[in-house]
Amino acid sequence: MAQECLKESETVELKKSTSELKESIISVVAILNKHSRGELYFGVKNDGSIVGQDITERTLREVSKAISDNVEPKIYPKISNASMADKTVIKVEFKGLEKPYFAYGRAYIRVSDEDKQLSAKELERLIIYKNKDKLRWDNQVSEYSLLEVNTKLLKSYISKAKAVGRLNFSYTNVALTLKKLELMSGNQIVKAVEVLFCNKNQLEVQTAIFAGTDKLTFLDIKLFKGNVFELLEKSEAYIQEHMRWRVKFGKLEREEIPEVPVDALREALVNSLCHRDYYAPEANQIAIFKDRIEIYNPGTFPESNKPEDFFNGEEKSILRNPLIAQTLYYSKDIEKWGSGIKRIHEDCTKNNVNVEFKNFKRGFSVIFYRKSEETARLVEGLVEGLAENQKKILELITKNSYISKKELAEKIGISTTAIDKNITRLKKKGLLDRVGPDKGGHWKIKI
Question: Which of 225, 255, 256, 446 has the most beta carbons within 10 angstroms of its beta carbon?
């Protein structure tokens, strides 16, 4: 490795000499707990300048013994001499998958190029992650018997999965079919079957319509019970019944257009049922407010990721209930693992609907923001034939006529130069005007 390329990072630690052996071991543990692998160099200052290290067989044994004696669980690093800038340094390559690791009885985590002692909560999280397969809900043996499986539903599911080309076998009997779906543990069904194919289970969806933008006054409240497929159908029908639709007349037929894209709503609903925490006693929730529709499930978003990480589709999906997800994938209720948030975001962006993904202490929500009836009527009457960014500008101005060009650029995600060009076009179309000066004035949409 060239001298100029050697610098401290989340996976590389540099030490001037083996006199800093204790601190080095702490760094090894911190890197392992964050990235599961890394490199340590003796004979290099933390600014990357190479000073070299006197090395004997005894030196290498001391480094090896110190790591062996003071790191738990045990790791077996590769320790070797390396030549850099005509000087000799010690290179230690290490890896391990048995998190959490401890140095001198304490656990650490790497943050940038520093080592931070793990809090009790962070340590608990690492231990849970290490034992995630043992702690999963969906692969635990169920107390239900095969007799409680809805045979008609299972047959229908297999037919659908075959029709969409994701399964290549037919229904035979309950036990053999569930075994082929990997939903059996020996001769017993697993808990995933309870919520997928049994009529009686713990799964509930609580729905409510509120009069305003808070939960003070509700207009309707219902509690749906059933399996995942029933609840998906009931929940989707409930939202579609209570959201606004507009009618667009074509030459030969009329088209009904929802205020929130139906595909995005369904994706949010199936994700909320698939990825919820089934250990939690809470019900899934659907709340329809005057200004938004919220779809909530118990079970937080993985802390190592943010919803935005999935917008480009490059982040790998982290599944809380892999068996449930796999079953829904076969029937094409889930299109592809890890792509749901991306599709929701893209569908809403395409249809000029604001959507938010929000993490809570014990749950996660997808929030679709509704336009007011006045705003919806106004924008509907103006947006025909407009470019996407022009539609967004009009919508934002209907909400805040004093919004600045800089704010428009930030909210839409384009430059202020692009905002200027689109505003000029809207003015030429006779749809937009500026009242007063740039500072202190406001926008006026012309109908």
Answer: 225
The kind and range of the H/E element at 102 are strand 102-103
297: nearest Cα among 313, 320, 327, 331: 320
The rounded distance, in Å, linking the Cα atoms of 418 and 244 is 32
Q: What CA–CA distance (Å, rounded) separates 429 from 406?
A: 22
Q: How far does CA 434 lie from the centroid of its chain? A: 41
Residues 160 and 39 in one domain: no
Name residue, tokens 């219902």: 222
Distance CA 20, CA 196 (A): 56
| pLDDT tens across the length of the chain (447 residues) | 444 468 899 999 999 999 999 999 999 999 999 999 999 999 999 889 999 998 998 999 999 999 999 999 999 999 999 999 899 999 999 999 888 999 999 999 999 889 999 988 788 777 766 666 667 899 999 999 999 999 999 999 999 999 999 999 999 999 999 999 999 999 999 999 999 999 889 899 999 999 999 999 999 999 999 999 999 999 999 999 999 887 665 556 767 788 899 999 999 999 999 999 999 999 999 999 999 999 999 998 766 667 777 766 555 666 789 999 999 999 999 876 667 888 999 999 888 888 999 988 889 999 999 876 655 555 555 556 678 888 888 878 876 777 899 999 999 999 999 999 999 998 888 888 888 887 778 888 775
Interstrand relation of 37-42 and 12-15 (parallel, antiparallel or unpaired): parallel
Do 356 and 413 fall within a single domain? no
* Cα gap 317→145, rounded to integer Å: 32
Residue 247 near residue 215 (C-beta atoms within 8 A) = no
Residue with the two structure tokens 């800089």: 406
Three-class DSSP category at 289: coil
- CATH code at position 302: 3.30.565.60
User: How many folded domains does the chain comprise?
Assistant: 3
Nearest residue to 295 via CA among 306, 312, 278, 283: 283
Instruction: Give the tokens for residue 90.
Output: 């010690």
pTM attached to this predicted model: 0.61
Q: 169 — phi, psi (to 5°)?
A: -130, 160
Same domain, yes or no: 180 and 232 = yes
CATH number for the domain spanning 379: value is 1.10.10.10
Question: Do the bridges between strand 292-298 and strand 363-369 make them parallel or antiparallel, or are there none, so unpaired?
Answer: antiparallel
- End of a domain among 370, 386, 421? 370
Asked whether 174 and 162 are in contact (CB, 8 A), the reply is no
Helices 416-428/388-399 angle, 10° precision: 90
